[in-house]
Amino acid sequence: MADGFLMEVCVDCVESAVNAERGGAGRLELCSSLLEGGLLHIVKQYVKIPVYVMIRPRGGDFLYSDYEVEVMKKDIELMKLNGANGLVLGALTEDGRVDAELCMELLGMPIPFHSAAFDMVHDPTIALETLVSLGVQRVLTSGCDTTALEGLPLIKRLIDQAKGRIVIMPGGGITERNLQRVLEGSGAQEFHCSARSSKDSAMKFRNTSVSMGASFSACEYSLKVADVGKIRALNAIAKNTL
């Protein structure tokens, strides 16, 4: 926070992590199949900035079964052993409240609350007070809307409500074109972005008849990687705004 702001970049591979740090990111959110190839362990070898790890046993909603809670606890244990600086997670009850009891079971190191979970709560003002009472440090949110820009009015109200007790970090669709509006309109001191660009595969032989996943998945021969230039541009905008 030496520059008066902190930019968190979401990454899912070592190259993106390295690029994010080169571009000026202050913290990484690592979201991927973490145990494949020791991703966290290798990322920590190549970057010096803090790495927070997403704990998410599956896609979909945030109402977890006992089996899924077991998976989350084991993932947390492994991430601690591999040097995670913090965790990103969220859990809700069936009626859209923060599952305070489960969160207390899982807490144990600095934990920002996972964005999508917060943005799916029934009442964000009540949810925020619950998170404050749990000692959660940070809420990543798009203002319960499609993007942070669209959710800007709620983000501003949440920051006013927080009164410095918890960090409200806008995220979701933040780009060079809207970052200044998001920061000025919300008063936020931290923001979250992915700042990725497509990178063509180095594969010369390509079997275009086969897709390694669902038909709507990304092409195997195009990769999304954090873009140093985009991250530097966002960094410069934040410096000029805050």
TrEMBL record:
Any one GO CC term of the record: cytoplasm
Top-level taxon in the UniProt lineage: Eukaryota
Location, primary (coarse class): cytoplasm
Gene Ontology MF, one: copper ion binding
Pfam family, one: CutC
InterPro entries linked to this entry: CutC-like, CutC-like_dom_sf
Assembly behavior: Homotetramer.
Task of the protein: May play a role in copper homeostasis. Can bind one Cu(1+) per subunit.
PANTHER family attached to this UniProt entry: COPPER HOMEOSTASIS PROTEIN CUTC, COPPER HOMEOSTASIS PROTEIN CUTC HOMOLOG
Protein name, per record: Copper homeostasis protein cutC homolog
